[in-house]
Amino acid sequence: MRFGSDVYSLETYDVVVVGSGPSGIAAAIQASRKGLSVALIERGGAFGGNMTSGGVCHLLGGRRWDVSSQQMVREVGGLFDEITDSLISMKKAIDPDTIDVYNNNPFGWYPRMAAGIACDIEALKLYLDEMIQASSIKPYLFSTLIGVDVEDGRVMRAYVSDQGGIRAFEAHSFVDATGDAQLSFLAGCPCHKGRDDDHLMTPATLIAHIDNVDMDEYVRYQNAHKSPKLIEIIKDLREKGIWTFPYEIFISIELNDKDVCMLNTVRQVGVDGTDADSITAAMMDGRKETSDLLAIMKEYFPGFQNARLRWTADRIGIRESRRIDGRAYVTLSEAENGTTYEDTVVRSTYNFDLPDPLRPSFDPMLGSVENPDVKRKHIGINIPYGCLLPKEISNIVACGRCISVSREVLGPIRVTGPAMMSGQAAGLACAFAFDGNIDVAEVDGKKINSELRQVGCIL
Ligand SMILES: Cc1cc2nc3c(=O)[nH]c(=O)nc-3n(C[C@H](O)[C@H](O)[C@H](O)COP(=O)(O)OP(=O)(O)OC[C@H]3O[C@@H](n4cnc5c(N)ncnc54)[C@H](O)[C@@H]3O)c2cc1C
After folding, report:
1. pLDDT for the residue 309
2. How far does the centroid of ligand 1 lie from the alpha carbon of residue 278, in Å?
3. What does the pLDDT read at residue 250?
4. Of 67, 104, 182, 345, whose CA is between 20 and 30 Å from 273?
5. Which atom number of ligand 1 is nearest to the Cα of residue 402?
6. Strand ranges (DSSP E) for 264-338?
7. Which pLDDT score, from 0 to 100, does residue 372 have?
């Protein structure tokens, strides 16, 4: 046992899920609904990962704006719909079907962004707490995975640090829902990070929430001036030397309450989400930049004269870090061509949107900010089960943004809807492994595909 006498307790479960973002929550709930005992380990103080502690309570990828029918289409189903429909019925989230996408959408522009479900962050936290309490999941907050014992290609024990010391966890299967592939990495699985040549990753963002916005004025201005993301104003401010940030866009999304917005504008270059010094600096830089940005917004941006900072997120928002080296891998061309698999376990129709690591307003998969319609299209990306399985360890299944795809494909699959679907797939994989007394690596992905349809996922 790696930490020996430092371990103050040994806990045993059928499944240990590490990380409680959209993918980890879905994995834990799905496994619990299949009758398994589940430990859900989260280093933060709330469940939900980037949706809550990261401040991104704008849930994309579950619905899509269909231009030809001029309607919102459901794309993910399953737990994504269950959670968002519940919040909508409690009036704690905005129903995309009720939005006038051309004249009054929470994004202020771009009809397709109205498909993101904006919700009340506190209501989401509470709802996830209640879901967990109503299940067989044992929650562990403020608990950080710090190491694993591996024997014969299997994780035998996971070690978790908390204020009491170190606890050890044993389980039949382990789910890596850490976003950073931290569990797989600690187990010695090979991982990829960033671009193949220089390993640089797409910029990070410290999300902020603001209130006292005059959303009507902001939307009116964008519509009247055909100025998405206020790029004309920013251009002018850049020429005058007022705007010195390394990006040319402004993204503010109205949340469930009128005139309360999530600011997703700051783009922090050179951040490595797996390096403690880097994310420490990024938090502090992000707070300073948010304050500087707010001063400019108040003076120059229509609708933001009286805006107030409510909160900056508890953690830096990392779009990209490690991806596992998986038993399968989806390339960009496979994704774009909509290659299908018998064992598809995740599907996404969300667009490619990962900005260039060094030029935060330039998306290598796009034409330009001015011409969003040239956005590289795809007909729906399918991910086979093997992309959730790290090489070398047979009882880890990964989900969320650390799965085995080419980094361009991260854009569409990392958003909340597909991340939740991958979590449901991971939860089902654990159930099949447990029932068959085999490891997740031996589970037939076709069975997961079929069961995902039965639990309402759209494949
Ligand atoms: C700035 C930004 C803006 C975004 N905007 C949107 C948007 O508008 N809409 C949308 O749908 N998506 C958006 N996304 C993408 C989306 O939020 C994430 O990709 C998604 O949350 C990934 O889910 P996940 O479950 O893989 O990881 P996460 O949500 O990151 O969850 C991982 C969890 O694992 C925990 N964890 C990590 N390591 C450990 C450890 N060692 N021990 C214990 N716990 C650990 C973390 O604390 C975290 O809670 C955005 C992302 C960023 C960064």
Report:
1. 98
2. 17
3. 93
4. 345
5. 26
6. 308-312, 322-324
7. 52
Look-up: residue for tokens 């307003």?
361
Strand 344-348 to strand 381-384: parallel, antiparallel, or no bridges (unpaired)?
antiparallel
Q: Does residue 143 share a domain with residue 43?
A: yes
220 alpha carbon – ligand 1 mean position (Å): 32
What is the CA(315)–ligand 1 centre distance, in A? 10
Asked if residue 406 and residue 440 are part of one domain, the reply reads yes
For the chain, which ranges sit under pLDDT 70?
1, 366-375
Q: Whose Cα sits closest to atom 21 in ligand 1?
A: 50
Residues 48 and 185 in one domain: yes
Q: Return the beta strands (E) in 19-153 as ranges.
A: 38-41, 58-59, 63-66, 71-74, 117-118, 137-140, 144-151
Q: Alpha helix (H) ranges present in 326-388?
A: 332-336
List ligand 1's pocket residues with C-beta within 6 A. 18-24, 41-44, 49-51, 56, 58-61, 116, 144-145, 177-180, 182, 205, 207, 264, 317-319, 400-401, 414-416, 419
Q: Are residues 257 and 147 in the same domain?
A: no
pLDDT at 1: 67
Range of the domain at 289: 203-318
Q: Are residues 260 and 339 in the same domain?
A: no
Alpha-carbon gap, residue 440 to 64, rounded angstroms: 32
Q: Identify whether residues 132 and 164 lie together within a single domain.
A: yes
pLDDT the model gives residue 225: 83
Q: What is the pLDDT of residue 102?
A: 84
Query: How far away, in angstroms, is 370 Cα from ligand 1 center?
Result: 28
